[in-house]
């Protein structure tokens, strides 16, 4: 079956759609470009589907490449038969292919190899036939002191070693054993004796078991981390009796004789010495990959939501990186994020120069016409917020806390050093906090996504897979919003479809040398930015001050002529068409259909003319934490508080209530109904109302609820939270989740 037919069947789309997508991908087109500007070719496959085609195509090509290597290896051994070649060609997974190849795979010297060298293979074949023989008499024929076969048992042991290897290398049996491990296997973890105190954070797993088939990703990764840190012992196997029974059904004949007894002994040896370790390793890898996919899916979705957080927009902003002993670093930024001023103020202990700090803030607000004040939410964040709010600033000045996770990473980065080589790290951090308020997407792309405060076990998962997923997420977010070419940083430009770091730098250099771009066509003058890169990137780049109004929109330059024809047919200019709903309603899209332009593209053009360059992100909303609740010790059970969702996991959501320690809203407390996926209820940066369930100051743990009455089921007299039930989480629904789910079909 050709790639397009197989992928089409798996994705439940047409083969022609897949084939067109493959051709575009092979031609260098990006996922955002294909899904946005080639809808006619792909039958309107969305971004998730296009990415799924790309990933599955790579898997199939990798499988074919491995098949070629396997065939070559077996052929060089002179062992390739027509039936074996057919089996290899028909292998649909890498696991099946490796099972077939196992008997022919060059291997180190094994017990079976040694037995063959002693000439015991004919005896093994005789025994494995399971016919009735005079066992001792036959085995005695192979006694040979020179070959170190001194007794009948030596001969039988060597024969069993060979039989055990045959059993282990049986592709059909391995497939069935793999299914047994997956369906009936159990994770069993226990603490390493003597490490109970050191391993206290893994207490839940000191004596723990659960089915492999249903173990959620966060528990799989937690157990594996405990094992890696040498606190836990972890097994992943079915009951031994079940495995041996399966093997006997596959191998043992109906007869009962001495040969069969020897084969049974070989089966036990094959399982314990060969098959069990091999299968357990494979299953652990499979479950790790599945757990990685779940964790990466959660992480990617959180990053996407964070990147697409509501921007304040182009305002003059004061940003403060709070601190006690070292003071607060204050910066003033212009509407494009340019640094206008910086200084340190000391409103808190131990210096407590509050009056002086107040004069500075008031004076700078007036001098620079500050429209918003962004305050980092770390150490001294709430105290600094209270100080600023006490200054009696104009009501028009927005005062808000900003999540500063990753700001210190940015401030020490090459990006920050390049932009502000002479500034202190803390000043750079304050700049990042202010810019994050103005445009989260533009600022967060400068930071490694792993450092921006969201995710689940991100350091435990496959780092290459994590990077690929996060890169996809950032690319998707950047191209969904669009990029203003005259103000964007090279880091932001690098994520635009078709560009990358080199062309992004070239664009910035060209802009610095020649002034702002006045048209998209000017991009073709940028060194090394050729027709292909222009085709891929142009639609996602905006030029706000361009002469041609279409350069401010997401209409691709290849369709400008079409839009101009629409305007000409109505006897108006393109600008008038964009300003008038009445004119746009008079356009009959059917008149503009062609071999290359279909109704999806025409409808996209019409939508874009109505709202050129529209930002898909939500409008910014001012948020305030509860006054007087600044530390975990201020929290009381039953207290109702405003909060902001900072992180979403498979088991719930973490919420910042302004006490420097996020609280957990467990899956069972996200709503007054059963919740399977936290993303059904909350998003990162969402403003929520929560009730405090319990507070453990010593362990810095806060239990929260979003239920209307979280204590209702416990009776009016009881105010303590009930135990949190374990759930089986299988989140799905968002873009990142759909992509991971589609990938799951290919395992």
TrEMBL record:
Bias (Basic and acidic residues) ranges: 710-731
GO CC field: cytoplasm
Presence of keyword Ion transport: no
GO molecular function: mRNA binding; structural constituent of ribosome
NADP as UniProt keyword: no
Record-linked CDD domains: S1_Tex
Key words of the record: Coiled coil
Any Pfam family the entry gives: Tex_central_region
Region annotation Disordered: where it falls in the sequence: 708-747
GO terms, biological process: nucleobase-containing compound metabolic process; translation
Coiled-coil zones: 156-183
Chain ranges of the S1 motif domain: 638-707
Protein name (Swiss-Prot/TrEMBL): RNA-binding transcriptional accessory protein
